[in-house]
Structures are given as structure tokens and as C-alpha cells.
Amino acid sequence: MTVATPEAPPSPAISPDDPVLGTEFATEMVRQVRAIDPYGTYDNLSPAEILEPYVLTKAKKREIPIVGDPDEIVVARLQAFYNAIAVMIEQECGLRAIPLLHLSHEGFGRALITVGKLVVMDRTLRDVHRFGFPSLSKMKHEADTLLAVALELIGEHSDVAGL
Amino acid sequence: MTVATPEAPPSPAISPDDPVLGTEFATEMVRQVRAIDPYGTYDNLSPAEILEPYVLTKAKKREIPIVGDPDEIVVARLQAFYNAIAVMIEQECGLRAIPLLHLSHEGFGRALITVGKLVVMDRTLRDVHRFGFPSLSKMKHEADTLLAVALELIGEHSDVAGL
């Protein structure tokens, strides 16, 4: 799968000094995006530039049609996001977390993360072609929430998570 | 999704008198296949003819190349099989069972059924383009096994299945 270089926006949505870029989550996200970039298109990009497409400011979102089919790049971006969350779950609980993304051509679907026989995250996806967050810190907040809920479930049902 | 009418094989792999055709499983399978046949291509086919493509005798299997991409018809067939199992789980335990099929273009993937937050079936799929069973009764046996394992898990972890 190829990942196209994003066009340089007039004013970047992520500042290179954003403290969120130093967090474990952002580091993992950058690692995941690089992992799905087999041709090294992203090699010369900074972390802020790599995560730029995840931030959909209101102006950027307005340019995307309301109805649309998700392309490969958006799907890869979504996969990288849920992969990063799965990795963070694994790091916290020491058990294997497996992400599973199921999408129809129209951009509806389901994202799941399982640990053992426990579903630790289960989300219905819609309008995947408009996937993005208002800011990098909102994206991290969303990931933190998913992580916290998953870890709580694992704590409560460790027998099923260990199956 | 369109489902092509299978070519009439010289000798059918399923006899119209096969007692398995009268079971709940076969009835549900026929219902599932008809459900993914929006143009009514299957309307005039008997249950034995509808389930015929699921039986891959050795001779039929030999004609399929070892490496190949699964087409839409095979994927729909696989989906109908796991849908039928999910319906049977639902009927037995009274809780909603949701099947999820994730396939790569190369025919590798994962089939999952969840009940609440419990993964009641989790299978790695390979060589999906060669999906099929040696006989109808072997197919029913496989479904029965998956059903029994799922129901046992639900019984043991009813709290998680009820989430």
C-alpha cells in the first residue's frame, strides 16, 4: 500500500513545538504511520508533518464532501490509529491486543480490538472518508479514553482477557 | 452483491434426499444464501442446489488453483456460513451475536463472532478461494462444533456476554 505525501497546507494544523508530539501516543502513531509506508515517502517528514493529515480543522473538513468513498490512504490512516491503540493496550497489560477493521466500500464499518476472548474496544464507523480530529490534543484525548476503557475491561474480566 | 448461478455439475455433491437438508442448520444456510441474492437468481433452485457450492469434493477441489484471489462470490458464501452460525448462537442463548469477517485481497483473514464483549468464535482464514467442505454432513458437523464451543464460552462467561 502506498501512502501519498500530503500536500503542504498553508498553515500547519500541528505546530512542531506541540508538547503532545513528545507523548508516548504520538511516538507510537508516528511509528505506525511509518510502518505502512513501505516506499519511504515519509522518511524526510517530521512527526508533526506525518500526523498532520489526522487533524481536520473546520476549514479542512468543509472541503471534504459529506458523502464519499474512503480511499486506501484514509483506510491506512484509520488502521494506524487503531494499531497504535492496540500497541498501547499491549504495553499496559502485557497481553496481546489484536485490532480488526471491517469497512464496507461506502465507508461504514466496525473497528474492534480483542484481548484474548475479550472485546476491549468496539466502535461503529461512519463517514470514514472524513476521519480526523479537531486537534492533535483531541486525538490524544480520544486515544487515552479508548485505552482507559479497554484497561478497565481487562481488569474486570482478566480471566476472559487471558483466554 | 450478485451471486452467480453455479454451473450444474455432472453429478450433484448433495443428494436432494440428504437428511441433513432437513436440519435447522441447512434451513438457516439456505435462508442466508437467499438473503444475499438480491436479484432472485436463486429463486428457482432447490436447497440442495443452493448449498451445492459449499461442497468441494476432491475432484472439484483439484480444479481450483492452490494460489488465487477470492472473488466476491466466495466471500459472500463465507459470510453466509458465519452469519448462519451467528443466527444459531442467537437462537440458543437469546443474546445478539455479531459476525465480523476481515479478509485481505489475497484471501487471508479472520472471522469473528462476538456476543456482548465476548469473542465466541475466532478463526484465522487461509486460502479462502478454496473454501468448502468434503460433504454436507461435514459442513454441518463443523457448524455444530463452532456452535457448541461458542455456547460453552457464553455459559462460562455470561457476565461478559451480557455486556
Give the gist of this structure.
The structure is a homodimer of 163-residue chains. With 163 residues, the first copy, chain A, is of the alpha+beta class.
CATH superfamily of chain A: Protein of unknown function DUF269
Strand content of chain A: 5-15%
The first-to-last residue Cα distance of chain A is 33 Å
Average of pLDDT of chain A = 89
Strand order of the largest sheet of chain A: 1-2-3
CATH topology-level name of chain A: Putative cytoplasmic protein
What spatial form of chain A do the alpha-carbon principal axes imply? globular
Oligomeric grouping of the chains: homodimer
Query: Which two chains touch over the largest interface?
Result: A-B, 16 and 16 residues
Strand/helix succession of chain A: HHHHEEEHH
Helical segment tally of chain A?
6
Question: Which architecture name of chain A does CATH use?
Answer: Orthogonal Bundle
Give me the secondary-structure category of chain A.
Answer: alpha+beta
CATH top level class name of chain A: Mainly Alpha
Helix content of chain A: 40-55%
How many β-strands of chain A, per DSSP? 3
Radius of gyration over C-alpha positions of chain A, nearest whole angstrom: 16 Å
Unreliable stretches of chain A, pLDDT < 50, 5 or more residues?
Answer: none
**Number of discrete domains of chain A:** 1
How would you sum up the major sheet of chain A? Answer: 3 strands, antiparallel
